[in-house]
Amino acid sequence: AQSVTQPDIHITVSEGASLELRCNYSYGATPYLFWYVQSPGQGLQLLLKYFSGDTLVQGIKGFEAEFKRSQSSFNLRKPSVHWSDAAEYFCAVGGGKLIFGQGTELSVKP
Amino acid sequence: DTGVSQDPRHKITKRGQNVTFRCDPISEHNRLYWYRQTLGQGPEFLTYFQNEAQLEKSRLLSDRFSAERPKGSFSTLEIQRTEQGDSAMYLCASSLGPEFSYNEQFFGPGTRLTVL
């Protein structure tokens, strides 16, 4: 069955600290992988996507993610978190319709 | 603004009433998706269109739900005889496809439905 697991429901980091959000997927074919961010009252915004090539992908707002086929993972990272990064983050897989994880809520301490 | 728009943004209705939501995709996008998001969960796929053809429906889409995209432009999602369990955020997204199936889906702001 196709699925996405985000093990961490809620993460709190200090402003300026590094961040890693975990994502594991189960997908029969070569996956297309995405990270979206959702702020309160806002629509989902794409941070980055992977579909082939270099397994380290760069996205907007200083985010990056690394695709590891052997671990079925696509973790999102940022070297230095800003207070404005506080939001809900969703990992998704699919070619066409998307299958989303349940999300990780990020809080940022001053 | 040429993004995806949804109307209304909020809808409160009584159990048993019918409701209809509208989605206007980005103009050149031929694929249109509907998702449902409940509190604390990620969006769940409901259905999608390529142009005016409805190509896939999730098992989540009961007989009370119907979606249309009559001219391959805007789409409507109707829920008949609403139940309290229908309370959720209904998200619409659009993209180019099928040859660009990995293309980004652009999401609208959603319609929040509350069934009393």
Structure description:
The complex is a heterodimer of chains A (110) and B (116). Helices cover 0% and strands 51% of the residues of chain A. Chain A has strands at 3-5, 10-14, 19-21, 24-26, 33-38, 44-50, 56-58, 64-68, 73-78, 87-93, 99-100, 104-109. In chain A, the strands form 3 sheets. In chain A, strands 2, 5, 6, 10, 11 and 12 form a 6-stranded mixed beta sheet that branches. Chain A has a 4-stranded antiparallel beta sheet with strand order 3-9-8-7, with no helix packed on it. In chain A, strand 10 (87-93) and strand 11 (99-100) form a beta hairpin. Chain B has strands at residues 5-7, 10-13, 19-24, 31-37, 44-50, 53-57, 65-68, 75-79, 88-95, 106-107, 111-115. Chain B is 0% helix and 48% strand. Chains A and B meet through strand 6 and strand 11 of A and strand 4, strand 5 and strand 10 of B.
Q: Main β-sheet of chain B, in a few words?
A: 7 strands, mixed
Mean pLDDT of chain A: 93
Biggest interface, chains and residue tallies: A-B, 24 and 26 residues
What is the CA-atom radius of gyration of chain A, in angstroms?
13 Å
Shape of chain A: globular
Using only CA atoms, what is the Rg of chain B? 13 Å
The run of helices and strands of chain B is EEEEEEEEEEE
Give the integer mean of the pLDDT values of chain B.
92
Fraction of residues in helix of chain A: under 10%
Task: Tell me the span between the first and last alpha carbons of chain B.
Answer: 34 Å
Number of helices of chain A: 0
Beta-strand portion of chain B reads: over 45%
